[in-house]
Amino acid sequence: MELSVRLAAVHQDAAVVEVEGALDVSTVALLEAVLAPLPGRGIRHLVLAATGLRFCDGTGFDALAGVHTALAAAGGGLLIVDPSPVLQRLSLLMRRLPRAASGAPDGPADRMPRLLCGP
């Protein structure tokens, strides 16, 4: 499977990244390679344009949740804009998972990025 990840815009502490293709265990390293340097550049807010994301498995979604968690710790977060139906379904499923056994606010539902769907 193929994945295209492009840093489309950077403004102050925010960036827009466009993704197309399939985000899975075989392509997640590409996403992480593009996103990992951003916090070091002062990026705290990330908009992920995901209209072209045809497929996302649990590994890919976990990577997105990890990015959101890291940005949230710095006072920012991840917003996924125009998520594909696949990503919307996966997000809904992940939000329904029970919280961590400790009851702490770090269960799956608390580390999910926000989805902003089109009209």
TrEMBL record:
Residues 100-119 are annotated as: Disordered. Gene3D superfamilies: STAS domain (3.30.750.24). Pfam families: STAS. Residues 4-90 form the STAS domain. Signal peptide: none annotated. InterPro entries: STAS_dom, STAS_dom_sf. This is STAS domain-containing protein. It comes from Planobispora siamensis.
